[in-house]
């Protein structure tokens, strides 16, 4: 659908430590306004020292604050919203009770209601022994601790009563989209579904036979759509954004970060932070092997338009990053003396 003249696009990223929002003019792709807000949502994990959980109320409060900091006259021109966020993690809620809409400072916002904590991608409760006890997925991607399906399996074994409280689940960005659109069942992009495990990217389906055989609560699994699909429309005015604005199905932050950087199909992206990632887009028509190898150095993640990203990652930690920065500074100083 074509956007009306003068309409703006709102981009949201619900990250691990902060929420970011940006208003973009869609034709020129010029950023008109942006704002970010730390969530300060970390909680002591209920599963012990290895648990990494976040307070969803804090995250949504930061999101609402982030939006209200943008110019209201600009927000009224938003006709489409794109949402990305931290992948792999999972939270649970009750359909029709996941949030409540309230008036705050003459603006309409939503607050979480019947919702669990967010178990993040950093969660370590699923030990190596526990993961080895799970059925092998029918997928080219392995399952690791912090992956949504692995976490649900952990609850199924250790706290089955917990799961009985909820009838919906998703990533934090899927939750945001569901609440904005008033969805009766969560929707999830293939990017986020692949990050949960037990998802076959070629057929774009969950491993239903495997999961059902092992007693997995499959009704919790979201319906999966292609990345770039429209999930619905805003069911209320939100922070000055008009009711009826289109909302895209939530995307993975990794894919979005690459998409914003690549300009040519032959480009590669090197990202260096706590981990280092070298990424490039695979040719059209490429399909990864169904069965992953534990020793495989390159992993393939769904991208856009049925293409894949090849990713070589090193979970090297901050010490290596600090050493790399020191080395670059030394090189710069030496080159400056030539």
UniProtKB/TrEMBL annotation:
GO terms for biological process: cellular response to lipopolysaccharide; glycerol metabolic process. Belongs to the FGGY kinase family. InterPro entries: ATPase_NBD (IPR043129), FGGY_N (IPR018484). Keywords: Kinase, Transferase. It comes from the Eukaryota. Residues 30-54 are annotated as: Disordered. The keyword Transmembrane helix does not apply. Residues 30-40 have a biased composition (Basic and acidic residues). Residues 9-253 form the Carbohydrate kinase FGGY N-terminal domain. It comes from Eleutherodactylus coqui (Puerto Rican coqui). One of its GO terms (cellular component) is cytosol. GO terms for molecular function: sedoheptulokinase activity. CDD domains: ASKHA_NBD_FGGY_SHK. This is Carbohydrate kinase FGGY N-terminal domain-containing protein. The keyword Kinase applies.
């Amino acid at each position: 659908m074509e956007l009306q003249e003068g309409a703006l696009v709102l981009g949201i990223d619900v990250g691990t430590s902060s929420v970011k929002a940006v208003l973009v003019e869609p034709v020129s792709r010029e950023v008109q306004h942006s704002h970010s807000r730390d969530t300060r949502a970390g909680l002591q994990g209920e599963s012990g020292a290895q648990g990494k959980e976040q307070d969803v109320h804090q995250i949504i409060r930061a999101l609402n604050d982030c939006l209200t900091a943008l110019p209201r006259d600009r927000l009224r021109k938003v006709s489409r919203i794109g949402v990305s966020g931290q992948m792999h993690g999972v939270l649970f809620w009750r359909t029709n009770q996941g949030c409540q809409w309230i008036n705050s400072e003459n603006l309409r916002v939503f607050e979480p209601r019947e919702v669990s904590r967010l178990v993040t991608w950093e969660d370590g409760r699923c030990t190596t022994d526990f993961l080895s006890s799970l059925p092998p997925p029918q997928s080219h991607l392995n399952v690791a601790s912090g992956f949504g399906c692995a976490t649900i399996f952990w609850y199924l074994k250790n706290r089955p009563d917990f799961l009985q409280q909820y009838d919906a689940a998703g990533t934090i960005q899927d939750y945001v989209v569901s609440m904005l659109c008033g969805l009766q069942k969560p929707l999830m992009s293939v990017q986020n579904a692949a990050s949960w495990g037990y998802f076959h990217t070629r057929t774009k389906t969950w491993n239903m036979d495997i999961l059902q055989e092992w007693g997995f609560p499959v009704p919790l699994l979201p319906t999966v759509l292609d990345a770039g699909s429209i999930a619905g429309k805003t069911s209320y005015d939100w922070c000055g954004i008009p009711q009826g604005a289109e909302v895209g199905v939530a995307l993975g932050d990794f894919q979005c970060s690459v998409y914003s950087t690549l300009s040519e199909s032959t480009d590669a992206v090197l990202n260096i932070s706590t981990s280092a990632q070298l990424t490039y887009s695979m040719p059209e028509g490429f399909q990864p092997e169904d069965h992953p190898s534990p020793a495989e150095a390159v992993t393939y993640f769904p991208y856009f338009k049925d293409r894949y990203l090849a990713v070589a990652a090193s979970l090297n930690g901050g010490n290596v990053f600090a050493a790399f920065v020191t080395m670059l500074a030394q090189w710069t100083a030496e080159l400056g003396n030539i």
